[in-house]
Structure formats: C-alpha cells, structure tokens
Amino acid sequence: MSFTYKDNTIHKKTIKGIKNVVGKIYGKAVNLIKIGSTASPSKPNKICIELTNRCNLNCPFCLVGQQDQKESVAHDSIEREMSGMDMELCKKIITSARDFGLKEVNLTFQGEPLMFKRTNFIKLVKIIKQNGLKAIVYTNGLLLDRDYSRKIIKAGLDECRFSVDGITQDVYALNRVGGKYSQVYQNMKDIVQVAQEEKSAIKLIWQFIAMRNNEHQIDEARLIANKIGIKFEVKTFAASVPELVPKDSKYQRTLKPPPCHDIYRQVMVYWNGDVVPCCYDLEGLEIMGNLNDSSLSEIWNGSKFQIFRERLNNVLQNPEGEPELCKGCLKYDSPSKA
Ligand SMILES: C[S@@+](CC[C@H](N)C(=O)[O-])C[C@H]1O[C@@H](n2cnc3c(N)ncnc32)[C@H](O)[C@@H]1O
Ligand code: SF4
Fold it and tell me: 259: cis peptide before it, omega within 30°?
C-alpha cells in the first residue's frame, strides 16, 4: 500500500529502500547528461506569480507568517518590501509566458493571492484562459465566499488548492494563526457546491501539510474531505521549523538526491517583476532579471540563469560552487549537508 503525496511518494520500508537507490542512480545519470550543458534546457512549464506578498494569516512555518514573531505585527519587517503587483505588469507577464510556450500560470508565490483586488484577480484568470494557459491558485481559503467563488469559477480557474492543516479550531489555529477553521470548512463546502451548480470541471483540492501537531488528524480530515466532495492531498512539510516535523516516518519528507530538477520546471516572479529560480528564494538571493525590462525567454536564456544552472548541475563535482540559496534546501539534498 502506498500514499501519493505532492512532494514525496511514501512506501513501505523495502520499497522505499529500492526507490532511494534508484533515485540516487537517476540523479547521477541526470547529472551526467546535464554536465557541460549550460544552455537553457527547453523552457519551464509554469510560472508562479506573486500578486501580493501580504497575508491575512501568520503561519509560523512561513516567512510571511513569521512576521508575528517579530516586534511589529504589521507584515512590514520582511526584508523585501510588502506590496502588490501592478495590473499592467501582470498582463505583460502572462503574454510573455504564452509567447515563450509555457503551459501554466500559478497566481501564487509568497503571500495570500486572494488579498489581491477581487475584480483584478478575476480579470487575470480570464486573461490567462484567453491566452490558452492553465490557471491555478493556492490559497488559505478564508477570503472566499459563495459569490466570489462563483465569479472565479465562471472566469475559468482550472485549479484551486486550499491550505488547511487541521480539523479542529485549536489545531488549525496552531498552524494557520489568525484563521477560523469553521470559515474555511464552509468555504470549501460552498465552492464544491457552486462548481456543481456551474457544471465546472475546476479541480478543487484540500491540501493538508503533515506536521507534528496535526498528523493525528489526517485520517479524519480525509474522511471529511470525502464527505464534502473535495480531493484530499497530504503535503510533506518542508522543515522550516524542526520541531514541526511529523513523528510518523510515512509523513516525513525524504530529501531528493541532487542535482535539483525543479529549476527547470518553473520560475517565480515577485510582485515587483523580479524573477527568481526557486520557490525557496523568499528574499531575492538569486534574482535572474526583471520582467518589467525583459521578456521571460530573455531572462531564461540569459547569462545569470545559465551560470546558476551550471553551478547547480556541477554541484557533485564542484561543491564549492553551490549557490548559497541551495545550501539550506528543504527538498534536495546538498553536498554541504554531508
Ligand atoms: C506560501 S503559501 C502562499 C499561498 C497561501 N497563502 C497558502 O497558504 O496557501 C504557498 C504554499 O506553500 C505551502 N507552504 C508554506 N510553508 C510550507 C512548508 N514549510 N512546508 C510545506 N508547504 C509549505 C502553503 O501551505 C501553500 O500551499
Ligand atoms: S496563509 Fe500562506 S502566505 Fe499566509 S502566512 Fe500562511 S502559508 Fe504564509
């Protein structure tokens, strides 16, 4: 028996052992193929757009949410400025993504995307669809209501992922500080119903990050999701807070063998147009260019990206060249961790 999770597939011990060996061989083979090839390997599949890096919650495992552990709780002490993207830039990025041949736009990076102005969010979903791309959003789900859900669905959103990490108020509020479980539960129920009424094929997912304080609620959460009619996925925890790593090994994240493949699949753009290569680059350690000034293909094929790829591709042969950003990676193993 095995459960499929977003970042990891967790199997019984023997199968896991075999997988680890296969994974390591695969990683080395990919590395051998990539060595010496710093030219851009085709293009990414998707772009993640940070509409705003502001948020209505203070999740303790998230850089944005961690603001409440600092003196000011005004979401103003993140290193880079807290703000939202200009609509003209949003449109330009979507066109640039289409021209470059991308397939998906995720209107999410740091922050809560549904804090973006509602009418503009709906406009963006429509524009993404008019350009033939898939439109996705990850949200804490608290700012929805039936009317807004209907508008988003009618605009053509393809996938909406709800981050809900607990099924009682006390546990949920440990992880989603400032959130009300009964509210998000109602909002998930409502959007499922609205999707049925609109005969929409939207993919609705309840995403539950497995942590020490909520792992005992996972089975019941799955039952509740089934009852509501929403797909349920467990996401492994990127160990940003060590004490929150789940006890049960089946919920723990196994770091993948290097080199990293993620930088070939997607790119991220901050609200100000800065492009970064990885979702763990929260503070702009590796800015590859700015989409106000350049197209996505120019940035992807630019020298900064090529050098970055080369350093990562060669990480096993040349560990000293490993980018600072990657040393603390919560998804891939790194020579600096050995
Ligand atoms: C930074 S959030 C932004 C979107 C939205 N505010 C939300 O919470 O869904 C993007 C995604 O990363 C997830 N996330 C944040 N910190 C995480 C961690 N340490 N491990 C795993 N997933 C994490 C969130 O649950 C969410 O699915
Ligand atoms: S809701 Fe999302 S962006 Fe906001 S603090 Fe939590 S994880 Fe971070």
Answer: yes
Cα 135 to the chain's mean position, in Å? 14
CA distance 247 to 185: 26
CA–centroid distance, residue 62 to ligand 1 (Å): 7
CA distances from 154 to 69, 117, 130, 148, 227 (A): 39, 17, 13, 10, 24
C-beta of 235 in contact with ligand 1 (< 6 A): yes
C-alpha separations of 104 from 49, 53, 272 in Å = 11, 20, 20
With a 6 A CB cut-off, is 253 part of the ligand 1 pocket? Answer: no
**Rounded to an integer, what distance in angstroms lies between the CA atom of residue 308 and that of residue 324?**
11
Q: How far apart are CA 292 and CA 304, in angstroms?
A: 17
Dist CA 16 CA 119 (whole Å): 47
Q: For ligand 1, what atom is nearest to the CA of residue 240? A: 19
pLDDT greater than 80 at residue 21: no
Give residue 127 CA to ligand 2 midpoint distance, Å: 26
Report CA 39 to chain centroid distance, whole Å: 26
| Distances 224 to 232, 246, 254 between C-alpha atoms, Å | 9, 21, 28
d(CA 3, CA 251): 10
For 245-278, the pLDDT digits (tens) are 999 999 999 999 988 999 999 999 999 999 999 9
